[in-house]
Design a protein that fits this description.
- The complex is a heterodimer.
- Chain A folds into two domains: 183 residues, ABC transporter transmembrane region fold; 241 residues, Rossmann fold, CATH 3.40.50.300.
- Chain A contains 17 helices and ten strands.
- In chain A, the strands form two sheets. Chain A has a six-stranded mixed beta sheet, sandwiched between helices. A four-stranded mixed beta sheet of chain A has the order 1-5-2-3, with helices on one face.
- In chain A, helix 2 packs antiparallel against helix 4.
- The termini of chain A are far apart.
- Chain B is built from 19 helices and ten strands.
- In chain B, the strands form two sheets. Chain B has a six-stranded mixed beta sheet, sandwiched between helices.
- Classes of the chains: A alpha/beta, B alpha/beta.
- Chains A and B meet through helix 1, helix 2, helix 4, helix 6 and helix 7 of A and helix 3, helix 4, helix 5, helix 6 and helix 7 of B.
């Protein structure tokens, strides 16, 4: 704020200096035709000195404002991050990813954006106050007339920003639509080409591009209008000041120097006024961003389903549990089951029968709505069907925040049959993901498996984790897990006969009911629906047998 | 260092204008309007000078003689009218520039869409997709930014500086030269500070990208992080990148804070010099008080645009490199070139002939073609109409490439593929796509309804046509199970459907065309059992009465085919029916044995 005050005072001071130079130095010099070196040097020295002080004021003001702005941004981001980390998956499923990212990115930036011009705006207001007093004391009538233009200019600026921003926002939105459409069209280029639809696609994209173009042109049209007006009004005011000034000079109330300094001061204020307009028009956006962050920060933290698990039994015991997508959409009620340590259970069923939700509830990733789950300890590793890998090294992806030795990492990768990692440019330290080496679905699944086994969990849950592996590798991986983690209980969602064949017991999810855990043979004998599913699995093989 | 860059810049600009001729339209008149508009900005200093010299001259405080108010009013009135006209001219210039450039950029975008869609599939691989998209979006945006800010600044500030310099020279050429001489180093200082500033902003943009990337992972990976209780560690990572971003932004702001003072101090020096020299020379050199005061105002006006102009130089560099990248895309030759004298081929029973086909990938810049590494070499084969053919081979054997050549997504380097005796590259694209349909490995669906995805092929198809198509390939039961029938949304890339279901939609889509030749690139990933049954059924229906060529990953497909082509390292090593080949010693029987052993149930 000190910098702001220095700036304001110096700016007004420089216009007074100009007046003195014109009245006392320039006019006198030309009227009397005598050159005073000392006076001239004083004028020049004052001019340069004042601008140096003004420059320092600006540097101080802006650097402090910048620091305050980004410190605030940092603490807002931290708050958003804390909420994101604390909330369990069921909360995350109800949020849109884009929305959360907006909070942490755009909203934080918008909240603090208003802080940057704030010290400047306050210095401009101070300057205007001093200048207004200066103008009015110099010449009451002209001063009042000139200061009356300030609010009008501020209003014009605010109106300008709002009106033009609206169109720029529309253009920005349409540009987002265009990017998405272009990405989709290029991604599907094989289909586009396969059906000779190149021209049709170009036309479709051109229509979206023309919407971007139209919004832009509208913004530019408005902007050119406002820019011209914002230039014209102060210039016209200046001319009016000359006319008014001429009368005042004739009546002897004003000197020529005073008039010039008057006009100079007015000109000096025109540009800062635009910034005030900008700051004012940014205010609602900042407020909205800040409000969104606050509402996120104040959202109640949903209870972590895992914290509701009880411990004590060596088996995994479900006692009349109900689970589902949410409390209005319960899939199964009163499910009771017990899984003994070291058992290998395959979860089998048709697509959409609730297998994934069930195993997620076992792992405490999805909530249960009644009943209880008892486990030996907290050590459950869950592997998702579509594994999420972070844009960091293979090692970091496997360790995921914990520290493990090189031997452990190698061991886990070996269990998961992820020998391809050795062939990557930097081995386990190769960065993967968007900004690194691209991996196939099967390779991603194997890294996710290594991530689970390295923790040597007492319960390992696999949600159809080996679907992208070829059947040979799938069998190898499961054998490795059995021998490498002999003490672990394995529960795996299975969609291939080979995996079903390896399991000790099967849990079969049929429309609306759960059978088992029991043996494969038992289910084949007792359950019609299970039999026909197994037949469907066998069919592709049968056709080979036919052709032999 | 500057010379090659400047010539490169000019060359890029002229190539750009040639690529989009509409950029040049009416630019002369726009320039004239801008000059006229800028002249309005010097009116005020000139009026002040004239008023002091002729209207208010020699008026000393307390004396009233010689103040010619009428003259001042007359001058001001004239000035006001001039100003108004100049404002309108300026407004028109800005608006014209904006409209012309936006419509030129629209033309450029459409040109890019067209061209990129015609690029060969090799230029459309996954790694390059992002950059292709950003050519049409962000690179065209940098040009748009340039025209609406940078280009505008050149236009207005350039015009202003020229006019102001002109007026200053007319007033007093020696004072004018003095101002220009003092301002010259300002350009250098500003460039230095701006270069630092840009580096600082680049660094903070990188930090910002890191922050956004890490936050995105924290959000999208929330389930995984929760499952492994790793949220705190990754949350801390985001906080660190947020701190780095804040620090870099603060640094950039600090450097930015130096820009204004440089202009300010140079302004003070220039004005001081004008005052000193003006006073020292006095009226004996023909200088008047009014001229000196007017000159002081002109000096401020002259310096104002310099800061903005130097700032724009970097934007220019950005825009030019954006333009260069765009021209780079436009200079990539389009995929297989359209036939020069296209021949229409109708729906008749046509044989396919592959005649001595060899294929190399087009060498990338600086690469030398390695003649020993042909993807396919000397393939010869005739496929009779109505045959079910399976092409098999290990990864890298060239089977996918052969499929692409048959689909005319690429042309063979040597040799000819012909349908009914007409080489593929002489058949018109429209008629080729009617007789030959490709179902790709990962069938792409647009994020829209099932109906829209089917109508992509035949826009005028009625709902009943579409429903019939499901029935024709024996998928009426699956269709009945869709939650909203034809209006079912498939999600991004069809993510609401399973991989198998996406293939079902792709088969229905292909059947709508009713092609004579069907090329199927089989999916590698597993499909759940019930969908697998449906797929097999639909394929059986679809292949009736057509030539079907499957790029087979599953040997069960090969077992069902009439004829199997076995590729090994780009050579056609075996050709015959499954029954013949399976007992013959060779690649096929080996592949089949290992495949069979891995597909047996249980241990």
């Amino acid at each position: 704020m000190a910098g702001a005050a220095v700036f304001a005072i110096c700016t007004v001071g420089s216009s007074w200096l100009l007046r003195w130079i014109i009245d006392e130095v320039v006019i006198t010099r030309f009227d009397t035709n005598t050159f005073s070196l000392s006076q001239t040097l004083t004028a020049v020295g004052l001019l340069i000195g004042l601008s140096l002080i003004r420059a320092c004021g600006v540097v101080v003001r802006r650097s402090f404002a910048g620091r305050a702005q980004w410190r605030t941004a940092q603490s807002l981001t931290d708050e958003v991050v804390d909420v994101i980390v604390k909330q369990p998956p069921q909360w995350h499923r109800q949020q849109s990813t884009g929305d959360l990212l907006t909070r942490a990115g755009v909203d934080v930036e918008a909240s603090v954006a208003v802080m940057a011009p704030l010290p400047y705006a306050s210095s401009v207001i101070l300057m205007m106050a001093i200048a207004a007093v200066g103008l009015i004391t110099t010449d009451t009538a002209l001063g009042l007339a000139a200061t009356a233009v300030f609010p009008a200019l501020i209003a014009l600026n605010v109106l300008y920003q709002r009106r033009v921003d609206k169109w720029f926002d529309i253009a920005q939105g349409e540009l987002g639509v265009l990017s998405a459409a272009v990405h989709e069209s290029f991604e599907g280029v094989t289909v586009v080409k396969a059906f000779g639809a190149e021209n049709r696609e170009t036309e479709r994209l051109a229509i979206i591009a023309s919407r971007v173009q139209n919004a832009r042109i509208e913004a530019i049209r408005l902007r050119s209008l406002f820019e011209a007006a914002l230039d014209f009004v102060p210039n016209l005011t200046n001319i009016c000041l000359v006319v008014g000034g001429a009368y005042r000079v004739r009546s002897g109330d004003l000197s020529v120097g005073e008039l010039a300094s008057f006009i100079y001061m007015f000109t000096l204020l025109v540009f800062p006024l635009r910034l005030i307009g900008y700051a004012l028009s940014e205010m609602p956006r900042s407020q909205a961003g800040f409000d969104r962050i606050q509402s996120l920060r104040k959202s109640p933290i949903v209870e972590d389903p895992r914290s509701l698990f009880t411990h004590g039994s060596s088996s995994l015991v479900l006692d009349s549990v109900s689970f589902g997508y949410d409390d209005t959409n319960i899939l199964f009620q009163n499910v009771s089951a017990s899984f003994t340590p070291q058992s290998f259970t395959a979860i089998v069923g048709y697509t959409g029968s609730g297998k994934s939700t069930f195993v997620q509830s076992l792992a405490g990733i999805s909530p249960i709505f009644s009943g209880s789950v008892t486990t030996a300890d907290q050590s459950i590793s869950f592997v998702f069907q579509e594994p999420f890998l972070f844009g960091t090294s293979v090692r970091d992806n496997v360790c995921l925040g914990e520290s493990f030795s090189d031997e452990d990492v190698d061991w886990a990768l070996r269990i998961a049959e992820a020998d391809f990692v050795q062939a990557l440019p930097q081995g386990v330290d190769t960065v993967i993901g968007e900004r690194g080496v691209g991996l196939s679905g099967g390779q991603r699944q194997r890294i996710a498996l290594a991530r689970a086994v390295i923790r040597r969990p007492s319960i390992l849950i696999l949600d159809d984790t080996t679907s992208a592996l070829d059947p040979n590798t799938e069998v190898k991986v499961l054998r490795n897990i059995k021998s490498g983690l002999p003490k672990s209980m394995v529960i795996a969602v299975a969609s291939r006969p080979s995996l079903i064949g390896m399991a000790d017991q099967i849990m079969f999810f049929d429309q609306g009911s759960i059978h088992g855990p029991t043996t494969h043979v038992e289910l084949l004998i007792q359950n019609e629906s299970y039999r026909s599913l197994m037949q469907a699995y066998e069919e592709p093989q049968e056709s080979e047998v036919d052709s032999k | 260092m500057t010379t090659p860059r400047v010539s490169g810049t000019l060359e890029t600009l002229s190539r750009g204008v040639r690529a989009v001729p509409s950029l040049r339209q009416g630019i002369g008149f726009t320039l004239f309007l801008a000059m006229f508009g800028a002249s309005g900005r010097v009116v005020v200093p000139v009026v002040i000078q004239q008023a002091i010299d002729h209207g208010l001259n020699r008026s000393v405080r307390g004396t009233t003689q010689m103040v010619d108010v009428a003259l001042v009013v007359k001058m001001c009135l004239g000035a006001a009218i001039y100003l108004m006209v100049a404002s309108i001219a300026q407004r028109t210039a800005v608006s014209r520039l904006g409209q012309r450039s936006e419509s030129a950029l629209f033309d450029l975008r459409v040109k890019l869409f067209q061209h990129i869609h015609q690029l060969s599939l090799e230029d459309h691989n996954d790694e390059q997709r992002g950059s292709l998209v950003s050519r049409v979006t962000s690179d065209v945006e940098t040009l748009s930014q340039f025209f609406s800010w940078g280009g505008l600044a050149y236009l207005l500030n350039g015009a202003l500086m020229i006019i102001v310099a002109g007026v200053m020279l007319v007033y007093d050429w020696s004072l004018a030269l003095l101002v220009i001489f003092i301002s010259a180093p300002l350009v250098y200082v500003l460039r230095r500070v701006q270069a630092k500033l840009i580096a600082a902003y680049d660094a903070s943009r990188l930090a910002n990208a890191d922050l956004l990337g890490n936050t995105a992972e924290l959000v999208t990976g929330a389930e995984t992080l929760h499952a492994y209780s790793a949220g705190a560690v990754f949350g801390a990572r985001v906080k660190t990148s947020s701190k780095i971003r804040g620090d870099r932004q603060t640094k950039a702001t600090l450097i930015g804070a130096l820009l204004f003072p440089s202009g300010e101090i140079f302004g003070a020096i220039a004005v001081s010099a004008v005052v000193f020299v003006g006073l020292w020379r006095g009226s004996s050199s023909g200088l008047t008080a009014g001229a000196l005061v007017g000159f002081i105002f002109l000096t401020y006006r002259f310096l104002e645009p310099i800061a903005e102009l130097t700032e724009v130089l970097d934007q220019t560099q950005t825009a030019v490199s954006g333009m260069r990248r765009i021209l780079g895309i436009l200079s990539i030759p389009a995929g297989p070139p359209p036939a020069e004298f296209p021949i229409e081929v109708g729906h008749q029973p046509l044989d396919i002939k592959i005649d001595n086909v060899t294929f190399f990938y087009r060498p990338r810049d600086g690469e030398v073609r390695d003649e020993n590494h042909a993807v396919l070499s000397h393939i010869n084969c005739v496929i009779q109409f109505g045959t079910q053919v399976a092409i098999v081979g290990e990864t890298g054997s060239g089977k996918t490439t052969l499929g692409r050549l048959l689909s005319r997504f690429s042309d063979p380097t040597v040799g000819v593929i012909s349908i009914g005796g007409v080489p593929l590259n002489r058949i018109s694209n429209e008629s080729l796509r009617e007789i030959l349909v490709v179902v790709p490995q990962e069938p792409f669906l647009f994020s829209d309804t099932i109906a829209a995805n089917l109508r992509f092929v035949i826009p005028q198809a009625s709902d009943q046509n579409l429903i019939d198509a499901f029935t024709n390939v024996d998928l009426q039961d699956w269709f009945a199970s869709l939650p909203a029938g034809l209006a079912t949304m498939v999600g991004q890339r069809g993510s609401q459907l399973s991989a198998g279901e996406r293939q079902l939609v792709a088969l229905v889509r292909a059947s709508l065309i009713n092609p004579s030749i069907l090329i199927l690139d089989e999916a590698t990933s597993s499909v759940d059992a019930s969908t697998e049954v449906r797929l097999t059924r639909a394929l059986d229906q679809l292949s009736k009465g057509r030539t079907t060529i499957s790029i087979a990953h599953r040997l069960s497909t090969a077992a069902r085919a009439d004829r199997v082509l076995v590729l090994d390292s780009g050579l056609l090593v075996q050709d015959g029916s499954h029954d013949q080949l399976v007992d013959q010693p060779g690649l096929y029987s080996e592949m089949y044995k290992s495949w069979e052993s891995s597909h047996n149930t249980a241990d």
